[in-house]
Structures are given as C-alpha cells and as structure tokens.
Please model this.
Amino acid sequence: MLCVRCKGKLYCRKKSCPVLDSFYAKSYEIKEIDERPTPPSVFVGRMGYPKVLAGPMLVLGDQNPEMYENPSSFSKRVEEVLALRMDLARTYRPFRVSSATNPGRYITALQEIASSIKSVDIEEEFEKIIRRPAMDDVTMPSGISAVFKKVKITSNPRIPHRVEKICEDDIIASEGVMELYSSGFPTSYIQRVFSVGMLGRDKKLVPTRWSITAIHDIIAEKLKGELSDCSLINDVLLFSFQHYGNHFEIILYPSHYSFQLVEIWVEKSLWNPEKTWIGSDREGIGRKKEYSNLSGGYYAARLPVIEYLSRIKRQAGIVVLREILPEYTAPLGVWVVEDGVRKALESNPERFENLSGALSQAAKRIKTQKDLWMKHIQLHHQTSLERYI
Model:
C-alpha cells in the first residue's frame, strides 16, 4: 500500500513513479507558444529549494483563459478536466527564493500576473520545450513545460487596490493572508499572491505545493481559534456530495471542536491498485503541529468545515469521510477536496438525534463495508466513537 501513502513522492526509491508514468507515456501535442494569455496563473516549483523554477502558466487552447484555473465550473468529468489542463503550459526559469525581497523585472512580472484578477497577455522567448506533463497529488496538472529566456506583459494586469495596499503594509505574512481572506478573495487567489512572495516582511518565493497547504492551514487555524467561545450545535448533521470520483460524507455532532478525516481509497482507484486502503488523521482545538499523514487533502477538507462553523458561530465535532473511487482516474489536485467539501456544506443537511443514525445513513452511500472504516473513526483523546453511539 506504499503508493497511496506516497502519491508520487518516490518513497519506493524507484527512479520514477509507476502510476504517473502511465500519464507521461501519452503523447501530448506541442502547440505554438509565442504570445499567449495566462489565466492568470504562476507556478513555483519545490525541487532544488532554495533555488527553484518559477514562471507563468500559458493557455495553449482556445477556451476562455480564466476557466483553466476554475475547471469545476465547466467540466464535470475527470477526463474533461485533464484534457483542459493539458492545454496549459508551465513555463519557468531558475530563481532564488530570496529574489522576491528585491524583485527584478522577471519577478515583478510574475507578481503582477499572480495578483491580477483577470487574464493577462504575455510574450515569452523560450530555450527548451519539454513534453512531460506535470502532475502530483496537491497541485492541478498541466501539459508541456518550457524554459523561458524572456517574459514581457503585453496587456494591463487588473490588480485590486486593496491587494496592493495589503502587500505594501508592514505586517507578517499570516496577517496579510487573513486581510486578503477577510476582504473576500478566494483561497486560490491568496495562494498565488503568497507563492510569488508578495506578503510579509521577509518576502520569499514559496513553492506552489507548499503555498496551497499553507493558506489552507493559516486560515483554518485562525478561524478555529475563534470557535472555542461558541456554543455547541444542537443536532447531528450529515452532508453528502460526490464529484470526480470523490464521495464525501460530512458529520457534525454536538461537541467541543475536533476534526478527523478518514480517507478510503477503494481497490483499483488512482493510487491504489491493490485492496482497499484506509487512513485517518485528527486534531483538537489546539494548533496541529505535525504535518498530516494524509498530505494536503487533510487541510483542504478541514478549511471549508471550519468556515461553515465560523459562519453559524457554533462549534462541533467533525467527521469527514472521503471515499476515492476508481472513477478518479487522474491526480487533479486537492482543489477537488476543498471544492467537494464546500459544495457538500452548501446543501441542506440531514438531521439526526444521534451519531448512530448519521453513520448508518452515510454507510448506505459509501461503497466500502462499514466495519472497515468505522474502526478508524475516533473522538478526541483517542476515545472510540463506538462508546457514544
């Protein structure tokens, strides 16, 4: 079961990931990429840190540029999202992460692209084009890559005045994140601005993968800290949603705050060619110190539930069940989790008098046998849930 824990990070010590190699083996069309729009989007790699590869993403297809960063609004199938993202090229050149402190023209261009709320036209000169697509378990996939020599913005980026002010303020990065969040900017936008080193006093480029999880964590921990004075919810609530081969059952029950995610990777799903694998992680009201063994999906699932509790000004115990089915045929990134949990919580919940009723109802929609995943569910302080139902 190493693959489902590894998700392409080569814990197996092989030279390449056998799961991702099946995607790399496909032939992707190399299109002309001289002058193209960016959705807007910028990617910062993590390999070689503190010297990283960074650059804008370029739209090679004919669709509205902004849809490439918001595929769920246009595509309902994994294959459609993958095809869309393969029409996005990742361009880059090497930078030191400290180059964001005193940005030159290229880092400035990346910052203007990342902070724009509308697509930006850019012109680039390239040294080399690479056919291999880019995929992992956290970020959204993309198609070909290209090493650029020069980049020039040929249209006016639309950067909100509020963003410019926050980025210029003498505040730490986490405060800047919360200022942007409180101003109504989505996590995907804040992740871009954070990644290109526009926030905080000690400005640095942050790899996109790290930025995604960092923003989920910063916002959730801040909101979580405000829940301790809230009263408990009255009923047991059950929310359900499914998309892209990911099925979510979310249970909120009267309790002081605790959160747990149970991931069920069904046999023959993406990272799991063998028998069903189940993993879990949990936390209480205190700050989570160690990185979750469930990787970025844990933080992506946690944030929308904490947002929900923050809106209704209540606290609760939380159980998120995520069942990954064979229909999830390609790694699309943890936005699938964040978006799925958020959409589940936008629906009308089913109400129950106790946890037993909610779990029984959830089990009717989960394909995996109940006794396999029930033993992974625990209340805070490692107490078995079975004592309370």
About this structure: The chain has three domains: 20-153, 161-225, 231-388. Residues 166 and 176 are 6 Å apart (CA to CA). Residues 231-388 form one domain. The longest helix spans residues 208-225.
